[in-house]
TrEMBL record:
Pfam families: OCD_Mu_crystall (PF02423). Belongs to the ornithine cyclodeaminase/mu-crystallin family. This is Ornithine cyclodeaminase. Its EC number is 4.3.1.12. Signal peptide: none annotated. It comes from Vibrio orientalis CIP 102891 = ATCC 33934. The keyword Lyase applies. One of its GO terms (biological process) is carboxylic acid metabolic process. Keywords: Lyase. It comes from the Bacteria. GO terms for molecular function: ornithine cyclodeaminase activity; oxidoreductase activity. GO terms for cellular component: cytoplasm.
Length: 321
């Protein structure tokens, strides 16, 4: 069994290659049990989680811890490892750093969904959030759409500026062809920006809506990633009601995501109104966006299938599979 650290994993990855590989994996037959997120204490957000999945060639399980108050001590809120086993004989193949791979696969999965849900001419991206995942969202969307402008919003302007510096200094940005590179700037107010935005991606730990859904323009695509709690949400009910709603996994989203659970509790949205899962988009069971004017929404809480797909890509690049 090999041990792949963050640096070794990154050297094996390209965003476009990962997105294309994930699309193929999502079209194939795989088994994805419901992920288990277990609070460590009653009333606490500290948690331990397990995400298993397997295909015809590979078995993976990701274990991660979530300690949201760690930032107060300058520590990471998430820690993660992924184990990979040979599906044919059960032998362990690799132990991978789960943190960096999660950043990559989360951004790639959102971009993969957006390839079916965002307008083909979408060129202006708004990133709400300044955490570690934020820069990856810019690279992922630039891999599937002609992004020309990236706007970054955060409650802390200094962190927003640091996010911009990270985006522009990264090898991921520098390796983009000149025609695919984009301008980046900080914005002070989300609502006043929505009139000029094609894609909104939210990667925050917010417990309340980040913007007024009535201000979304026809044709906008909304991507919600940050919230995994039943009583929190990054968008308001208006956003959900106005949108065609898609998810990474119904069973997981409906167990965890207040973004949809709160409107359901209010009687303003129903589980049956979810249009499709990402696997159905990739297999073309659902054709995705229906018109230029349609507002689309993609809610993800993290699927073990995304981990499986990312691990398959890395191990293939390393010639282990």
């Amino acid at each position: 069994m090999i041990n792949l650290d963050a640096q070794q994993i990154v050297k094996s990855l390209t965003m476009k290659g990962l997105i294309d590989s994930m699309r193929q994996t999502y079209q194939e037959q795989s088994t994805i049990p419901q992920r288990r997120v277990m609070p460590l204490e009653e009333g606490s957000y500290d948690a331990f989680a397990l995400l298993p999945a397997w295909s015809e060639s590979l078995i993976t399980v990701k274990a991660f811890t979530y300690f949201p108050q760690n930032y107060q001590e300058g520590k990471d809120t998430l820690a993660s490892k992924i184990l990979a086993f040979d599906r044919a004989n059960g032998e362990p193949l690799a132990l991978l750093d789960g943190k960096v791979l999660t950043f990559w696969r989360t951004a790639a999965a959102s971009a993969l969904a957006a390839d079916y849900l965002a307008r083909k001419d979408a060129s202006r991206l708004l990133i709400c959030g300044t955490g570690n995942l934020a820069p990856y969202m810019a690279y992922a969307y630039a891999a599937i759409r002609p992004i020309k402008k990236v706007l970054v919003w955060g409650r802390d302007k200094q962190k927003a500026r640091q996010t911009i510096d990270t985006i522009l200094s990264s090898n991921q940005y520098q390796s983009l062809p000149i025609e695919n590179q984009f301008d980046v700037e900080v914005v002070d107010d989300v609502n006043s920006t929505l009139a000029h935005i094609d894609i909104v991606t939210c990667v925050t730990g917010s417990d309340r809506a980040l913007f007024d859904g009535t201000q979304l323009q026809p044709g906008t695509h909304v991507d919600l990633i940050g919230n995994h709690d039943k009583d929190k949400r990054e968008c308001d009910t208006s956003t959900v009601v106005r949108s065609s709603v898609f998810v990474d996994s119904k069973v997981n989203v409906l167990a965890e995501a207040g973004d949809l659970l709160i409107p359901i509790e209010q009687g303003l949205f129903a589980e049956q109104q979810i249009q499709a899962e990402l696997t159905e988009l990739c297999s073309q069971t659902h054709s995705g966006r229906q018109s230029q004017q349609e507002i689309t929404l993609y809610k993800s809480v993290g699927s073990a299938l995304a981990d499986l797909a990312a691990v398959e890509f890395v191990l293939t690049q390393k010639e282990i599979l």
